[in-house]
């Protein structure tokens, strides 16, 4: 990754809103999965054998979460003092939010995979 | 922040406050603080107090009382089930017992207890003098008391709800199958839900805006993180239930058939709305206990908690995932297996953050030098019980296993392991830990430990056998069971265990009763490192002597001379020069001081408002609609008086110094003000309830091949679009008034507000005109019923919008709002944004969806 | 004590004593889950005890974080994912063909309306007892009558709700002949605890013969009991095929004498129980819809009971 890009990423603003981006993506993907299956079953009576829409939605969700995770990973490695990053400085606060976002991205990534797995095993509306 | 303040308060720490050196000055300050924070006295007036110390204690004691009451109900049930074919109580009584046991434990104990404890602890943890809206806390308490007594008292009149705490229609909506009890449940608990949401608003704003200077997000005590997360969960979990309650009572009182399959309704809609609330609810009552652990484990491990960001991950992750679990309560309702599978997957994923939480505690204990103490015994013991409940939770997340276990005693065992290990025992642990903070005295270690072991054995003896009796074919909610099932022995063991558990609770009650006879303990008796332990054994009502600058997660351990500096008023705001109750408001992320807020003083208004609002719900239960309407008008009058006299007050001077050369304003408006946040958060809850109703509309569309039904009238396009257009104009006029007002053109702003009032009222009428002109009959079918509901909801909000606008106009005319002090118009702008959102969704749905779906218009 | 309690447990209404394929596979799953849960609980408890006993400073910050990462996050994630992947295939319902027996069951407060529809024949109406052929697939079609009930035969398969306005299906295949019992598992009102039914799994040939016999109407009414049945207006709610008009409000009584129990699996089928239930059903089942007949004499009740018992 280019140095300039890394520098740019480090300067991105973080807040409580950016912290919840990964789990929000999970929530949106979950709702999407549920509605996709429920509407297909209620209105079409089956869901397609090759659920393209579902696959695209899942890949998209994983990409957004991964992007949030990468940004958070770079930000969490801002130079500064040693872990556990618990002093009242700007950089420690940034690294704390970045680390938490990174962890949430990990959890959300796994949770999206969990949510998508059933489609591999169950292929009808019974 | 004022221009005179440096960019960061950190640099100021080096400079000590020499102006506080003189003991005489300090004594005078203390005298003023004491006078300002003096509680009201007198037989009646003492109940008008709003200080968090007092209201929190009332709240806690009341919730504790409801817990004991619900526990006694459980003992009667266990006595009935001790032997097969028993007839100690009738089926009718038994159904009331289990309904009230569950409802009381959930609505009147677990959630309020968390809020009560937080009302006591949060200001202490944050070094604030009080919560941002003390009168709102008092209002929440009185609402809780009135609603709780109303609901629980019904059992003494044999009129208690008897449909289970989940109240599934049609059993509970058919008035030939259920009586007054259903209305008492629905209306009484709706009232409590309102007070829970009010407390959530208070706690969120408290955590975000009332932290001490320097307490950035990464230094917040973990308890505050959990409170923030849990309060936000309440905000999104309770409103769907409130939406469900609205539909439920419309069916019971007016005959609108939302859950009546014969008229197009569906009982499953209730189950969705109930469990969207019901599952997050489990985590709402469990996370605060983990929060207590996160405070007491570092104290007894004598080190910082390991993995702070991991705990934040666990709290936030659990909060999100818990909203994707609700259908696992509906695994046996016959939904498509693929739908169940999504929820099964999420139900398993939610165990991951819980595992992280538990292992962060284990790692902390491992790394630290453990000092064994009674609160730690409770923490470790309840984690052991909770782990068993969590593991059976993973078992029932597996759908095929759940099809066997669902609605049997296996689930009763599972949920009691979770709630005893995840709520009740941790609270007792918290009681032993924080009792010195509240009373200045320690509880008995001997009694505490004996009680723990009695309860530990009792809980396992009571609930472990239930796993087996469930798999052996014993369904839940049965008032008796036949001897031939061969589960008499297991049930007898459960009954013995339940009484043993009750004996342990009794021991704790005795310990509490003995407390007044004991001497005061030392300050900070556990040698903890967090701010709440600044409290003195002889409690002062001012909270902290001076609001500290925070540089560590454990300031008492890490910041040299910390306690002394706080006590000598060497930090911020050590005085009450103007004889006003004050606290410091800081920015959300980095906790920079931005305002000194004047707080509410003791007042009878919160109590009267609670009584008035309670009367609306209670009178409606008895179908006394005119009286209820009078109560509603009285409530409105109370609320307006409260706002007029107690909020957005123009200060006598624009700003004041808080020490260390920092001067901050006394008044804020817009997104940095606490009042703005309260409005925003309240409206988030409101929008969530609304989305529950909209979900209803589209839910009916999915279950019917023909919806809107082709042979039914619909509101047409004209009136909904007219209502939408009028709402847009009303919104634009309000926002324009705000902008023009800020530029000093007061008269023009007033004129715009007048226009906004007229147009918003017109949108109210136009919204109702659609279904009215089309002659839609809500009793005949669910389609007209849900259209009417959406239209009424939106129009009612337009009506409230007009009241808000009129109030703002009156504030301007009354000289209580000026271009420099314009919180009122900024706050109602937030309301108008949400009104606009509501109107867009409603009118596009009822006006245009019939065209899009090719239904009635085709 | 626990062992004694288990050995005392029943074999006819238990998820741990399966007589069908679905319940048997769920029992196997239960055992796997249970063993896993016990192992994990023991490990966590042991680790917690070790953590408390270890003196301070033995675990560095870095090691502690590694513990949280591996034992708190990665191991649970992998375990749970394996569990998910293993359990999803078990959710697939067994295949059904058009030739399979269909049994329609409808829940009412507090009894069960049953209709057997073998392919190509008209349905046979019965109540409060379900007979099934061993080794053949049966599809249950479950309807909600008045309120929500839930249909559970623990030894056969998992439960399924009966919801007004919806029809749910449940596929099962019994493997062992015998007498079993099912219950309502969704709270449905006052006598929810008293809403059960007998399940009799039969060899296929015996089942076919039984179903043919059930198709027969009752013998023509004769005797005082039949006359009293008509006089008290029992036929207003209960059908006895071949006798009087059809009415579907209460349970069908055409072959009530052949059932083992009375009042939806609650009382043994004896003359005294029948007579008592006819006069005052509410004392056995609170909230029951059937009215009491307080002015009916004991003798009349016994006569009606004898008549009904004769309807084999």
Automatic annotation (TrEMBL), chain A:
Record protein name field: Transmembrane protein
Keyword annotations: Membrane, Transmembrane, Transmembrane helix
TM annotation in the entry: 12-32, 52-74, 94-121
Lineage: Bacteria, Pseudomonadati, Pseudomonadota, Alphaproteobacteria, Sphingomonadales
Top-level taxon in the UniProt lineage: Bacteria
From TrEMBL, chain B:
Official protein name in the record: cytochrome-c oxidase
Keyword 4Fe-4S on entry: no
Domain of life: Bacteria
UniProt-annotated location(s): Cell membrane
Cytochrome oxidase subunit I profile domain span: 31-563
Any Pfam family hit: COX1
Reactions performed catalytically: 4 Fe(II)-[cytochrome c] + O2 + 8 H(+)(in) = 4 Fe(III)-[cytochrome c] + 2 H2O + 4 H(+)(out)
Stored SUPFAM superfamilies: Cytochrome c oxidase subunit I-like (SSF81442), Cytochrome c oxidase subunit III-like (SSF81452)
4Fe-4S found in the keyword field: no
Positions of transmembrane segments: 56-77, 97-126, 138-157, 184-208, 220-242, 282-301, 308-328, 340-364, 376-399, 411-435, 447-468, 488-514, 599-618, 624-644, 676-698, 718-737, 749-773, 785-809, 830-852
Family classification: Belongs to the heme-copper respiratory oxidase family.
Enzyme Commission number(s) of this protein: 7.1.1.9
Species: Sphingomonas aurea
InterPro entries recorded: Cyt_c_oxase-like_su1_dom (IPR023616), Cyt_c_oxase-like_su1_sf (IPR036927), Cyt_C_Oxase_1 (IPR000883), Cyt_c_Oxase_su1_BS (IPR023615), Cyt_c_oxidase_su1_bac (IPR014241), Cyt_c_oxidase_su3-like_sf (IPR035973), Cyt_c_oxidase_su3_a-hlx (IPR013833)
PROSITE patterns xref list: COX1 (PS50855), COX1_CUB (PS00077)
NCBIfam families, per database record: CtaD_CoxA
Keywords attached to this entry: Cell membrane, Copper, Electron transport, Heme, Iron, Membrane, Metal-binding, Respiratory chain, Translocase, Transmembrane, Transmembrane helix, Transport
Pathway: Energy metabolism; oxidative phosphorylation
Membrane association type: Multi-pass membrane protein
UniProtKB/TrEMBL annotation, chain C:
The keyword Transcription belongs to this UniProt entry's keyword annotation: no
Domain of life, per lineage: Bacteria
Domain Cytochrome oxidase subunit II copper A binding: start-end pairs: 98-213
Cleaved signal peptide residues: none
InterPro entries: CcO_II, CcO_II-like_C, Copper_CuA, Cupredoxin, CuRO_CcO_Caa3_II, Cyt_c-like_dom, Cyt_c-like_dom_sf
Keywords: Copper, Electron transport, Heme, Iron, Membrane, Metal-binding, Transmembrane, Transmembrane helix, Transport
Cytochrome c domain: residues covered: 220-312
TM region(s), chain numbering: 28-47, 67-91
Catalytically driven reaction(s): 4 Fe(II)-[cytochrome c] + O2 + 8 H(+)(in) = 4 Fe(III)-[cytochrome c] + 2 H2O + 4 H(+)(out)
Pfam family for this entry, one: Cytochrom_C
PROSITE patterns with a match to the protein in the record: COX2, COX2_CUA, CYTC
Subcellular location: Membrane
Keyword Transport: yes
Gene3D superfamilies: Cupredoxins - blue copper proteins
Cross-referenced PANTHER family: CYTOCHROME C OXIDASE SUBUNIT 2 (PTHR22888:SF9), CYTOCHROME C OXIDASE, SUBUNIT II (PTHR22888)
Family, similarity comment: Belongs to the cytochrome c oxidase subunit 2 family.
Protein name: C-type cytochrome
Classification lineage: Bacteria, Pseudomonadati, Pseudomonadota, Alphaproteobacteria, Sphingomonadales
